[in-house]
Amino acid sequence: MRHDRYVMTIVLSGLLLGFFGVMLSVWGNPENSGICVSCFIENSAGALGLHNNSRLQYLRPELIGFVLGAFASALVRREFRSRGGSAPLFRFASGFFLIVGCAVFIGCPIKLFLRFTAGDLTSLSGVAGLAIGVWAGLKGLSHGVELGRVSPSAAPAGSGLLSPAFFIMLLSFLFVAPPFLIASEKGSSAQHASLLVSLGVGLSLGFFAQRSRFCITGSVRDILLMGRRAPLLWGGIAFLGAALVTNLATGRFNPGFSGQPGAHQEYLWSFLGMVLVGWLSVLIGGCPFRQLVKSGEGDSDATLAVAGMFAGGALVQGWNLAATSAGVPTGGKIAVIAGFTLLLGGSLLFRARE
Amino acid sequence: MKLDRFDTTLAVLLALSVTGGGYLALAALPAKVTAIETRNMEKELATQARLTLLDKLYAPVTASVQEGNLQEALLKLEEVNTRYPGEAHGYILKGEILDRMGLPDQAATNFVQGIKLNGDYIDRRSPVTRRDIIRKIVDTRLDAAVAAYRSAPGNPTLKESLANLNYLKSRLAGGCE
Q: What is the pTM of this model?
């Protein structure tokens, strides 16, 4: 009975993520980007003045909602616990390279499947890359590559409140904008759903994602590990089904390889970008979305990954690493390889040997 | 420590990553040079555009200064400053005019406001630099300002004049801002 209820929560989370992921585009977010954690991080970093791409500066309410929704859920269910202390710098760097991988592909794992269910066939290389990245991460885990256990005792009591406090401050910026907050008047950041809708969707998704532990790379991981017995499989199916049906119902399903919104045709780099994201996600325990949710429930390791993601969001724009429809800049390719260097070097260093 | 096949695989992939990254970085060098040149050109264009715009905006003021009509220049400057209250160039021009009128302390006040808004006016290599006139004011006024302040330490006007001159002296000396 309890198991059934848990599976239902996962399915509900998947349905909401798929439905709102498309509907937010209908309500004003950029095409195929109703929910894209890496894009939201880049936008929000720009809004806070961390980069100067005037087309990508907007404090995305959804992002704030994810963390605070998870915070609320963790409080309600008495699951909020300050914990952390495992390989903090590696997690920060991993957060940075998560965004590099996403920026080279153009989208986080959620957007990967939103693009796919909208008929963007260029995303197939990313799907393959994510699956292989998760598989490689699992291989590493099975050979003893792990960052150490997350420990409640290693984190001072209350330290887990820092992330929710930071996002509550950002929430206040949405309603009383400080003079340093920037909002694009052109480009994709000028496209957004209304504040209350975005915030409401973000809060509900954060709430349910905390309850269900649903995340994209987690679903892929569990499917590879447990096959049809994985509860997250049903969440993944619900997410894909809801996104596909909503795309079809709203006339947003346009299958093809060319002319897709926010996509390029450098398949090798899309593939490698998502291998990096999948592999890192397994190593640090979740995709960018999951890191936000975990930081809302008191996990300071995830908060460090989120801090790294903000640094990544700033620098992929400031250093011109992010791909565009024109393709992947050389700097972005070098950054992906640097990410693999970190990953492989880290795997050698963090491997537990008998 | 014994290395197994997994370690060897990781090490080979790591070597491939480092080599591939190094190759790409070397291959990107010409593009980097082009990017730097493009960025420099954009900066130069922005600087030239700003100078041209400032010349145009403040042309009536500089014309009056060149004719020696300093009061008229100040009036015209106030008109422009009303339209562009946050523009550093207005404060700098006002400082120059007040200095010509023999009011170095008031000139210093305006130079301070202008430099706080835009540090280019104190930079040695900037095309809009006013270092020479600012240095002259600091050199000629500072000792007198210190003496005046010591004689009446409670006087806020003297205190502000001294603070302004010290600020300008500090900026002339360089260092972090």
A: 0.83
